[in-house]
Amino acid sequence: MADSAQVPELVYLVTGGCGFLGERIVRMLLEREPRLRELRVFDLHLSSWLEELKTDDSYVCFPAHTQGTGHVQVTAIQGDVTQAHEVVAAVAGSHVVIHTAGLVDVFGKASPKTIHQVNVQGTQNVIDACVQTGTQFLVYTSSMEVVGPNVKSHPFYRGNEETPYEAVHRHPYPCSKALAEQLVLEANGRKVNGGLPLVTCALRPTGIYGEGHQIMRDFYHQGLRFGGRLFRAIPASVEHGRVYVGNVAWMHVLVARELEQRAALMGGQVYFCYDKSPYKSYEDFNMEFLGPCGLRLIGTHPLLPYWLLVLLAALNALLQWLLRPLVLYTPMLNPYTLAVANTTFTVSTNKAQRHFGYKPLFSWEESRARTIHWVRAIEGSA
Q1: Is 5 a residue whose pLDDT tops 60?
Q2: Dist. CA 179–CA 156, nearest whole Å
Q3: Which of 25, 143, 300, 356 has the most CB atoms at less than 10 Å from its CB?
Q4: Would the pTM count as exceeding 0.90?
Q5: Which position among 173, 209, 244, 274 bears the catalytic label?
Q6: For residue 70, which of 118, 119, 35, 19 has the smallest C-alpha distance?
Q7: Taking 60 as the threshold, does the pLDDT of residue 28 lie above it?
Q8: What's the CA gap between 36 and 68, in Å, rounded?
Q9: What is the mean pLDDT of the chain?
Q10: Best CA proximity match to 149, nearest among 108, 206, 192
């Protein structure tokens, strides 16, 4: 983007800025984007950590990175991406939108209609708001699940953005993310108010982990309920790529920073988001953090045969459907989560490094240490 070393001038908007990833993007921008004049945090539910920054009713001043001068105005905006007028009001006057707001639900807590409204219609509202207000740069947080694992359990081994793979989905969440990503990529080049082209790109993180990860918290509490034990359900030979939340946030910051100068190269592109975290099964990877906190993974082979897990997953799906009018039943095991957990899906890509110089900001050792420290803090609070 244009050189503004003397006076910070850019206005960024982060939708979903109070979420697990959104918060890290917000903090990363405050730490490492010296050209910020204003950072808008848009979310349906504003988090308490924003209150810590407040100095008056509308905004806060946060010291810019040492490379910059002055202060950054941080504006908290409570709003809903499914409400087009609220999105337009938040986007107006911004230079860059990082659209990370979305409903991540693979357990059936929300209806398919709600997932579609938030992830697809919400994304369309963001695109339309950029066009209406003349905002030229849009970075979208997509997901590896746009690609897979597919419902046929085909492995994806060290693949990249060009690796052929049959993306076949039935679950509402990956279907919604695939549709939303398509909307974002097709919007690249569309004329915004003022006549300039909209420049878009999408990032596809693999399974994100790190401080504040709710599923990691759930596994930890589950292990405590079983006397410090977790029981193996997935073969250790099944590998997944996982990525630390701080490195995902860093890639978003880099893309937003480079999108104007490299619009011809990056516009309309997708990038897998991965770091140097080791390839392991979900359970063995989680034990990298839960093991040092006192939990044990029991068994070298799955406790139950796969056919029985398939039967239990189908039974859970049936019970969820039958009970939905009466009670919300959201088991962690369902046909989709079983297929994902039992299918190798690992990415190895240097496209992000080639296109905009991405290198992980946090090493595996630091990512692991930070996550262990957070799990131990959960233990202390319990």
Answers
A1: no
A2: 21
A3: 25
A4: yes
A5: 173
A6: 35
A7: yes
A8: 9
A9: 90
A10: 206
Question: Where along the chain do its domains lie?
Answer: 10-213+242-277+346-362
Q: Are 357 and 160 in contact (CB under 8 A)?
A: no
Q: The dihedral of CA 153, 248, 355, 203: what is its sign?
A: positive
Q: What is the pLDDT of residues 52-79, one digit of tens each?
A: 765 443 444 444 333 333 588 899 999 9
Q: Assess contact for 167 and 370: CB atoms under 8 A.
A: no
Domain covering 10-213+242-277+346-362 assigned CATH 3.40.50.620 in the classification: no
Least confident of 33-42, 55-64, 244-253, 310-319: 55-64
CA separation for the pair 88, 129 (Å, rounded): 5
pLDDT above 50 for 259 = yes
R_g over Cα of the chain:
21
| Sign, Cα dihedral of 286, 229, 107, 172 | positive
Dig out the tokens for 43 from the structure.
């979310």
210-226 pLDDT, tens digit each: 999 998 999 999 899 99
Nearest Cα neighbor of 115 from 30, 175, 192, 181 is 175
* 206 alpha carbon, distance to own chain's centre: 9
CA 33 to chain centre: 20
Distance separating alpha carbons of residues 1 and 95, to the nearest angstrom: 10
pLDDT band at 344 (very low <50, low <70, confident <90, very high): very high
Q: How far apart are CA 204 and CA 160, in angstroms?
A: 11
Q: Which two tokens stand for residue 234?
A: 């997935």
Mean pLDDT of 142-148: 94
pLDDT band at 303 (very low <50, low <70, confident <90, very high): confident
Q: Clarify whether 274 is annotated catalytic.
A: no
